[in-house]
Design brief:
Two copies of one chain form a homodimer. Chain A has 629 residues and is an alpha+beta fold. Helix content of chain A is 35%, strand content 19%. The first copy, chain A, folds into three domains: 342 residues, Glycosyltransferase, CATH 1.50.10; 102 residues, Golgi alpha-mannosidase II (Immunoglobulin-like), CATH 2.60.40.1180; 110 residues, no CATH class. In chain A, strands 5, 16, 17, 18, 19, 20, 21, 23 and 24 form a nine-stranded antiparallel β-sheet that branches. In chain A, strands 2-8-9-10-15-12-13 form a seven-stranded antiparallel β-sheet, with no helix packed on it. Strand 22 of chain A pairs antiparallel with strand 16 of chain B.
Chain lengths: 629, 629
């Protein structure tokens, strides 16, 4: 089974198409301007000798430009534009020019510490930045067919491969990312050395003595030992958890440390297992998946609750106001979930992918495309606002590359079938039964509606299974094939599989029930005790004080049993389905001067309105809550 | 109006008498042993030249010994014991011997930094330790009539008075305490200079430039500038809030900074206002009182939620698990409340005193008298345990001196009347109408019962008002005088005043309703939303997992409307009235492997049992909650 690449999918719907258009027309230019004004682009020109001056910004700023190149490349393919293409080519030219004669490419080390390459793999992110260069190169090649950046990437990958490996220098990235990038690079080049190096990085990790332990002994380490010790020691002893270097991947059962790093590692491990069938890795990934989805996942698809380590803490520790839930971490979860689906074929992975996509990741960007969240809390007492950029700007280009490439998460294919994983209006070009082309067209107003019309157009009549993902949350659905009711038995993988010979213009009507659901958290999630969240389809809802101005916002409660209704409002937040109902709120005035009362205070009836979580903080930095009483 | 001193009150009941006995027989000897083994007593011997060796422990450890002397003195008066008296005399002899020829007394500075006296008033606690010496001396003199320690105190007070004051050196204690001690010293000696010095310390505080700002400019300050800056600067600029030195007392309206310091300052300010009638100070104290009782007070009478500054934060910020609520701070609140009562004559101050006494202060000591809490959280996830002592051991001798002297909070007198503020079985010797002695005898099982029999025995028939405090929380009560129902109209000060000519063996029967109350917190107290606490009489209740083992403890909920019942159980926790009822709990097993469910989970019915908060953590370090769903 393989994903359909973003190049084989078009999107033409009311939900994602406008977001992709904004991404193309607003976000990508906005982020290029940010990269320009913050010196990120100039760093490449300086390293290339094209301009004078010192390195500017944080030592891993190259990666933001690489991610922007990746995002812009996807966008050029979906939204061609000659002017932007020349902007992109200009940036790529500077990146390429900064490559050193031996293939090395990293503007910080080239400009600041040229003699100290590869001496601080734990902190200084040379391999991480290389990974993002590789991903950009692959995307640019796939989107445009141009090989300029791909050649740059391969020369650098060859250099890295010549240095690190089983019989060479011991090395590992402190921040994972290069592993999955090398797999992608191997995919487009056919170069097995790249996937072998990825496998080395994935499987060498967590063995002792670690390269990180050795680097801790270097008093002259670039970047200094203090930061290194902060992340890699506890009580003076080496501790690898922060970078998932505490155990070999095959032994890992708990998601630990920096969440983005964890997601990127698990994604690469799934890539490796997909190629090798290594059951020890597959079993470890299942255990890690169970750990995160059963004990460490926000209802929004956010992961990594703590700002302290930008990552994981303990089972069921999911605070709302202080939730870190980095945008990049939800994006990384999408990467991992997609690979777990390819590995195991089960819909439960795509269910989580969908949750993260529509909520914890999408919340990371404003509706106008120029405001970003690094953290995605599930409640705010007010004062949280979106920024147009960050000093550490990993998230803005990450969400841009995700939005530009979501088509690749919608479908999968194999010789035996086509999988429809995301319900998004548009088309997909699949190939089944060896070489039979099939166009699949979706017409749907999902996620506002659960009705999906799928038209199957094979170039010639062909027998295969059309596999429709039925979300586990969905208690009721109906399927009609060419108007006739079809069985609604899902298979063990969670799909409704329609096995038949398909002819041109065959239609499938899928109707997923989209009730408003009250969601209850496990009782060990302390902050959500006595509370619930609202969900409809893939969308988690939240309440903002701007819609719910009565009384003390924190006391907002939905009346038990009172009906909740949906209403699509095209006028607000770019058009959303609101959830409305009757609730109660407490009024501080009823307390007078009392801090405590011993008679039950009156609840004030009030109309309540919830909006999709992804759309919060687009109307000022007010109070917000996902979990209400 | 004046309090009846502890020497005029005996206690003979089922609640406090055993605690005083344990205090006398167990806690006082235990704490002496701790002071001995930790070098606290030896420090005095070393400073006196009676033994060799270096200063041991923290620089303000003298104050723990002084507080122990105060506690032991009270106890000797209530529980005479020749052996302990000689122990006390031996300690006092060492303290006295450590006094320097000029009257100075502080073992840290005498042993470690004799040339650096009074150079770090902000941090090094010389004046604070002096204050506790003065309080000890006053208590010892009152309890035993011996003047040895009082003479020592006066010589030191004279030295301090010769150094600091309006026309002398500018000085203030960083940690308040000496102010109220000087007022006490003036009270027993009649020396007006001492109360004048107290007034200087109270009213000089908060004026600019502050002595603390000047000390910040001394690079050679004993103790070092770092600690000083930590407490007294923000962003590099002087900030006096930590020690209530941000504004003159007359301008203060919000309780800020270190809670114990605040309580001691406000207590002294009330003492000064009592003497001078200064309306600006009285108005400020009223504002501060309203601030703490309306916005910053735990339902247990704890104050100061934050461990960061050991003190106050923001209005309505009253976290439960992380509540600092230092034992000493609740004790300080009792001191302040008592003085506010004397200043204003209103029962509302004593209501708060009673709450702090029976809950937030009393929780600071174990039932066996040898285990202490420094912090008094309102919830625990387990693992909190009592210690037999602390490195910074302010709380253990503080609770010991409180327990030994609670008689002084029970009654007040004036020419016109007697006030019964606390319902405690025992006797009080008051004087009314100039010189008529009246013995008041209480028989009661309070706080387990609301029935109080009061016998009034004047030496000769005399007309005065017997003023019974009716707690504001009490919605129903009945009073009978010699069997006849009396009006139950309380006066503006919250007292039921029985004005009549009293004869020997006149009896008053007061019956206070003692229902189980559900208490609701103000809606801006975020942690208590949707929760309530149980209270009965002055006692706040809590739940411990040892009594409530079913399901997930955190989900414990009382069934709305289900009856709650009381049951006295003499077998557990020294004999307590339990509250029992029917509740619900969630069972983690019902969640299976799910982190989120979208059908409402079944609640499991369970019997629930609550115990008085003061008695928690006497059966292991389990989970506890005051506020339940």
């Amino acid at each position: 089974m393989r994903s359909l690449p973003f190049t084989a999918v078009t999107i033409n719907d009311r939900f994602w198409a406008p977001r992709q258009q904004t991404n193309s027309e607003v976000t990508i230019p906005h982020e290029l301007a940010q990269c320009q004004t913050t010196g990120r682009i100039d760093n490449f020109a300086k390293a290339a000798g094209l301009m004078s001056g010192e390195f500017e910004g944080i030592f891993f700023n190259d990666s933001d430009v690489h991610k922007w190149v990746e995002a812009a490349s996807y966008t050029l393919q979906t939204h061609p534009n000659p002017e932007w293409e020349s902007d992109l080519d200009a940036v790529i030219a500077k990146i390429a020019a900064s490559q050193q004669p031996d293939g090395y490419l990293n503007t910080y080390f080239t400009l600041v510490a040229p003699t100290k390459r590869w001496q601080n793999l734990g902190i200084m992110h040379e391999l991480y930045c290389a990974g993002h260069l590789f991903e950009a190169a692959v995307a640019h090649y796939q989107a445009t067919g141009k090989s300029k950046l791909l050649d740059v990437a391969c020369r650098f990958a060859d250099l890295i491969d010549s240095i690190f490996g089983p019989d060479k220098q011991d090395g590992l990235p402190g921040h994972e990312g290069i592993e999955l990038a090398l797999v992608k690079l191997a995919g487009v080049t056919g170069e097995a050395r790249y996937s072998a190096l990825a496998e080395y990085f994935v499987t060498r990790r967590g063995h002792s003595p670690s390269v990180f332990e050795k680097e801790l002994e270097n008093p002259d380490i670039p970047g200094g030992l203090d930061a290194y010790r902060h992340h890699f020691t506890r009580d003076g002893n080496f501790e690898g958890h922060y970078a998932q270097a505490h155990l070999p991947i095959q032994k890992q059962t708990e998601c630990v440390g920096h969440a983005v790093r964890a997601m990127y590692l698990y994604s690469a491990a799934a890539d490796i297992a997909y190629q090798t069938g290594d059951t020890a890795i597959i079993n470890a990934l299942e255990a890690l998946w169970r750990n995160v989805t059963e004990k460490r996942l926000y209802v929004t698809g956010g992961v990594g609750p703590s700002g302290h380590n930008e990552g994981f803490t303990n089972d069921y520790e999911l605070p709302n106001v202080s939730a870190y839930a980095e945008t990049c971490a939800s994006i990384g979860l999408i990467f991992w979930a997609q690979r777990m689906f390819l590995l195991k074929g089960a819909s439960r992975f795509v269910d989580v992918l969908e949750t993260a996509l529509y909520n914890g990741a999408l919340s990371g960007i404003s509706l106008d495309g120029t405001g970003f969240f690094y953290q995605n809390p599930l409640a705010s007492h007010g004062g949280r606002h979106r920024d147009e950029w960050f000093g550490c700007a990993c998230c803005p280009p990450n969400i841009a590359r995700l939005l530009a490439s979501i088509g690749q998460y919608a479908y999968a294919e194999s010789d035996e079938g086509v999988w429809v994983n995301l319900y998004i209006g548009g088309t997909a070009d699949a190939t089944v039964a060896g070489d039979v082309s099939v166009k699949v067209t979706q017409e749907t107003d999902y996620p506002w509606s659960g009705d999906v019309k799928i038209t199957v157009d094979p170039e010639t009549p062909v027998t295969f299974g059309l596999n429709l993902r039925i979300p586990a949350r969905c208690d009721a659905f109906e399927v009609r094939v060419n108007g006739a009711v079809h069985t609604s038995e899902t298979n063990a993988n969670g799909y409704l599989s329609i096995q038949r010979q398909w002819h041109v213009k065959d239609t499938v009507h899928l109707t997923l029930a989209m009730p408003i659901e009250r969601v209850y958290a496990h009782p060990l999630v302390k902050e959500n005790l006595g509370r619930y969240a609202l969900r409809r389809g893939p969308l988690v809802y939240c309440f903002e004080d701007v819609d719910n101005p009565d009384g003390v916002f924190q006391t907002l409660s939905l009346v038990e049993g009172a009906p909740l209704e949906t209403a699509f409002d095209s006028e607000i937040l770019g058009g959303v389905t609101l959830i409305r109902g009757t609730g109660t709120v407490l009024d501080a005035a009823d307390w007078g001067h009392n801090l405590y009362l011993h008679s039950k205070p009156d609840l004030k009836r009030t109309d309540v309105t919830a909006i999709p979580y992804y759309a919060w903080c687009n109307r000022g930095a007010g109070q917000m809550a996902v979990w209400v009483l």
